[in-house]
From TrEMBL:
Cited InterPro entries: HDACs (IPR000286), His_deacetylse_dom (IPR023801), His_deacetylse_dom_sf (IPR037138), Ureohydrolase_dom_sf (IPR023696)
Listed name of the protein: Histone deacetylase family protein
The keyword Zinc is assigned to this record: yes
One Pfam family linked to the record: Hist_deacetyl
Alphabetical list of Gene3D superfamilies matching this protein: Histone deacetylase domain
Protein family per UniProt: Belongs to the histone deacetylase family.
GO BP terms in the entry: epigenetic regulation of gene expression
Amino acid sequence: MLTLYNDQHALHHGKTEMFRGELVPCFEVPARADYVLQELKRRGLGTIEAPGAFDDAAITRVHAPRYIEFLRLAWAEWVALDPANAQRDALPSYWPIRGFRSDVLPASFAARMGLFSFDAGTPLTAGTWAAARAGAACAFTAARRLLQGERATFALTRPPGHHAGADFFGGYCFLNNAAIAAQTLRDAGVQRVAVLDIDYHHGNGTQAIFYERADVQFTSIHGDPHTEYPYYLGYADERGAGAGLGFNHNLPLARGSDFSAWRAALHTALQGVAAVKPGALVVSLGLDTFVGDPISGFTLQSADYLQVGADLARAGLPTVFVFEGGYAVAEVGVNAVNVLEGFAQ
Ligand code: SP5
Ligand code: ZN
């Protein structure tokens, strides 16, 4: 297992997110990636390298130009509104819901903040763009190294990516690292790529990016959106559209589901993956399915993740793992590395 590590990740360090009318400390913190890195080193699981050369073309393949431009300049605009803003994170307060226009681009920074986002839980900070861009480089390099012959690679980066769509942030995500990895594989000639999202939350951003495409299959196992974030997407009847009809598979599970139910869904998911004979697999690796996760509702134990890795390996595909959620900070390292070790054995 080759790990590509984004050593710029801590440049994104949100202070607070909106929850039940209050600003509470962010769950998505730099220590998450630090624990994974520490555990990888402790167990000597493969080599750890820095991402290679990268230009923004790989981001533009997945994200809209006006969204990328917004992210690049957002912090400077935020501070220009009021020098005191340098001490506080930017959060959106206005959203263009049904009936409003989303083709306009208001001069107001607050209005554009809402145009390009879908929740008030994803603070934008001084280093968000730098961290997210380095994360895209990390995912890109993980895909490139796979093409150069690695059996499996791991993009160890944050902020996570799977909630970010072509032109929106949310769910702690800004650039969709898994989508960038999948598109990089496609652009290098891999005919069909499967993305398997095992984060607790539905990967709405990744689904939206590939929804009308047959060349990238998307499958997600997640908490039932009737009760779980992101609520408005991730239902079983979302099967893809146009050329992509039949290439999107959602496997929602009730809050409280245990590993045996989760593993049955994994086997269903992997059957669907095998059916399209992909040339490579991208795994959105969230560890918030863990019993101790503070914002989630499944009950997987640390040892279960070894089995998850072994099950994924049996797909027999070149595989890029991309780090997503997982907020039991002290355990996220062991849980992530258990998946990778189970895969490698
Ligand atoms: C990548 C990822 O896992 N994003 C998840 C975003 C979830 N945002 C909503 C969090 C809701 C927090 N609920 C707190 C419950 C405390 N008991
Ligand atoms: Zn999650």
